[in-house]
Design goal:
The complex is a heterodimer. In chain A, about 40% of the residues lie in helices and about 20% in strands. Chain A is α+β, with helices and mostly antiparallel strands. Chain B has 6 helices and 2 strands; from the N terminus they run ααααβαβα. The longest helix of chain B is centred in the C-terminal third of the chain and has 18 residues.
């Protein structure tokens, strides 16, 4: 891949009703000169940077807050990363974990659209010695 | 951070900025025809680059990762760090490298947003709204 080309992963959130098949059909209908591969999480596309970025922008319109995208280092169908050819998929565990999170991120995006102000919840810290002494006094007397 | 996160990459792009990711650095190395035998493609140039960011006594795994991520840090104009992400394994699996990257980012003095990794709806809302606010403030 050179600087003019790009490979992208298009990931559909689990809460979306869009299927990878619909995404792939839509991408084909754009008529761009890009390689498209349907996957379990959505699709992978590869081609000229401007074509790929246009395709990403367009496909997002199908379900804006539930379709996500990121770059991919390896080209589509690269043998070093293809399971069918015993390639390793070291990034898949992370992708799977983040895919599970996308339904929550979608809610976050909706909140951001409405300009909601969300206060940070304080993390549970360690109990201070004074509090500990107070609790002991209250319980034991 | 993590530099290969789908969520961060997407949000940064969505809110109008260019994300600098590990995938971009990896793509250059695994597809460049000038590199002899990808994916076993650490060149002597990479070793030198790694040394710019970490001393010789630092384990080679950290230096190797920094050879990829160091130039991204140099290029960065702002950073978002997601703390306690559960996927500190795989190709971002080196916690020491992550610590080193955080140190280099802080040393650079660019605007940094540090947010906890969300585990529920409220935290996710907080994270996304905070990232939006941070990125819009950079424009």
């Amino acid at each position: 891949m050179n600087e003019k080309n790009e490979t992208r992963m298009i990931v559909i959130a689990p809460s979306s009703e869009i299927t990878p098949d619909q995404v792939v059909r839509f991408l084909h209908s754009l008529g761009k000169n890009i390689a498209i591969k349907e996957t379990c999480y959505g699709a992978m596309i590869e081609g000229k940077k401007e074509d790929v970025q246009l395709a990403v922008r367009e496909v997002r319109k199908l379900d804006p807050n539930r379709i996500y995208s990121k770059l991919r280092g390896f080209p589509v169908g690269d043998q070093r990363r293809c399971r069918a050819l015993h390639g390793s998929r070291p990034g898949f565990t992370q992708l799977e974990k983040e895919w599970e999170m996308l339904s929550l991120i979608e809610k976050g995006l909706r909140a951001a659209e409405k300009n909601e102000r969300i206060a940070e919840k304080k993390k549970k810290g360690k109990l201070s010695m004074d509090d500990f002494k107070r609790i002991v006094k209250e319980v034991i007397g | 951070m993590p530099p290969n996160s789908l969520i961060l990459f997407d949000l940064v792009e969505r809110f109008g900025h260019e994300p600098l990711s590990a995938m971009k650095a990896i793509a250059e190395r695994v597809t460049d025809l000038e590199i002899d035998s990808p994916p076993i493609n650490v060149t002597s140039e990479d070793v030198k680059k790694g040394l710019k960011y970490a001393g010789i006594e630092v384990p080679s795994g950290i230096r190797g990762r920094l050879a990829l991520w160091g130039p991204l840090i140099d290029e960065a104009e702002a950073a978002i760090i997601m703390e306690d992400a559960p996927y500190y394994f795989g190709c971002v699996g080196c916690h020491r490298t992550n610590e080193m990257v955080k140190y280099l980012l802080r040393k650079k003095g660019i605007p940094i947003l540090e947010i906890p990794y969300p585990t529920n709806e409220e935290e996710a809302k907080f994270m996304v709204t905070k990232i939006k606010e941070f990125l819009e403030g950079l424009k």
